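The material for today's practical consists of a large collection of protein records. An example says more than a description, so a record of this kind follows:
***
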Amino acid sequence: MISLKGCHFPKDAVLHAVYFYLRYTVSYRDLEKIMAERGVRVDHATLNRWVVKFSPMVAARAQSKKRPTQSSWRMDETYIRVRGKWMYLYRAVDEHGETLDFMLSERRNRPAATRFFAKALSSNGIPNKIVIDKSGANAAGIREVNRILKRFGCPAKVQTIRSKYLNNLIEQDHRFIKRRVRHMCGFKSFRSASATLDGIEVANMIRKQQFPSTTTSGFRLFAEIAG
């Protein structure tokens, strides 16, 4: 359960503000006005702090609460502007388009790819195969993961398939994230970018109905995940 100790607002109000910002195309100043119309007076700087603080917490809980995913993965990275520079959002979905994992990186190279695959494997298990594009760094990352698995005595070996055509699924899935980020005019720090993207990915997973729940409300499901 996420603790809001020290926050001088009702938990529902805080989570509603965070979810609304992550899910819809709205600025912090617009959200400040929306919250005021609902009787909650909070400035845009505080709203930003809420998103940066609570989004990673919800994302961590989301990984343990999502439905099991398939063992055939599609992996790719997309560009995100941070401090005026392009950085890289690593993402993976399964063969049905359900989100597996995500990670923002300042660099696109073998160590970054290896960190991402290690992160994805820790929360989703070992896949049978991973489809990537022609990226040599991503292929090297999978080879490194296979070496690590062998070192620990794991008989499983992840198959690498390099196909841009088969990877269209995740390239299409980038659109939701890019559409939401496009209106943010870039991030001011790596920390805020990574935290906010964590939350946007959870909102995207809710949109895809990746969590078992009886509620049809996106916000209520977000609040259930938060605990």
